[in-house]
Amino acid sequence: MDWTEGLALLDLPENWTGGRMLIIIGTLIVLGSVIGGYMGGGGHLGVLWQPFEFIIIFGAALGSMVIGSPKTVLVGIGKAMGPMMKGPRHHKSSYLELLSMLYSVFRLAKTKGDLALESHVERPDESPLFQKFPGFAGDHHALVFLCDYLRLLTLGTNNANEVETIIGEDIEAHHHEHHAVSTAVNNMADGMPALGIVAAVLGVIHTMGSITEPPEVLGHLIGAALVGTFSGVLLSYGFFAPFARAIESAYNSETEYLNCIKAALLAHMQGYAPQVSIEFARKILPPHVRPTFQEVEETVTNLTHD
């Protein structure tokens, strides 16, 4: 049994296992390896506690991020902490629900015409069609995204090529906004090693001002100064750079979700049957979240019989 199977035995929620648990495990591995190796070699843990060094590194890194980031990105960083800890929100089960919902929408449009969707897209929060799929209905951005383009269908839009261009630009703008957030965190990580050197240099300056002190005092001051370099490198490569990648991964999951909706919508606009439209959408999904054809077929068959 590997460690992923062991996690599965804990019966944790799917997003908890993919997000919080991996961050906790990774953090423990980093801290355990670094601190454990240091202490195993005879190092004294107390020497590593240099709060003023941390203030220099964190404060300068935070200030540089504020200088180089617009307000929207700074707000986005605060909002990104949740997705980072939870991990990608969309998994196989949520895609199976999405494909089922799209099938229901397209079946209604095929049997009664696109105008039958009007009442649902104008008041999606009250729509019995969407409320049958609570996971999708609870994703405000995805719900609004779908309804905006279904509304175009009810208004008579039938050129799939034009709509494809618009949807592509819409998704790209959404992706760019999220990418700016992860880039800002990654830039802060890139600067931390240099800021650690700044803290170390300031420590050396302080040490030189105490050059008349006995060797044991100077040794402590020099050790404290070197903690700045150590901390900057560790915080950068051990934590903040991985945090940036975790944020990027979580937001890429949202982009893939929207692309799935896009593929299904375009197939529907080109006149394909609902089963074929959702199959187009299913095939573009990454393998680790893609439901099988049989799973989708069984789910939509149950919907047909409801």
Automatic annotation (TrEMBL):
What GO terms in the biological process aspect are recorded for it? Answer: bacterial-type flagellum-dependent swarming motility; chemotaxis; proton transmembrane transport
Q: Where is the Motility protein A N-terminal domain?
A: 24-113
Topology in membrane: Multi-pass membrane protein
Segments forming domain MotA/TolQ/ExbB proton channel: 158-257
GO cellular-component terms in the record? Answer: plasma membrane
**What keywords sit in the KW lines?**
Cell inner membrane, Cell membrane, Chemotaxis, Flagellar rotation, Hydrogen ion transport, Ion transport, Membrane, Transmembrane, Transmembrane helix, Transport
Q: Name one Pfam family in it.
A: MotA_ExbB
TM stretches of this protein: 21-40, 52-77, 192-211, 217-240
Superkingdom is: Bacteria
Q: Where in the cell is it found?
A: Cell inner membrane
Task: Fetch the InterPro entries from UniProt.
Answer: Flag_MotA_CS, Flagellar_motor_stator_MotA, MotA-like, MotA_ExbB_proton_chnl, MotA_N
Which family does the record claim for this protein? Belongs to the MotA family.
* Name the UniProt record assigns to this protein: Chemotaxis protein MotA
Q: Origin organism of this chain?
A: Novispirillum itersonii
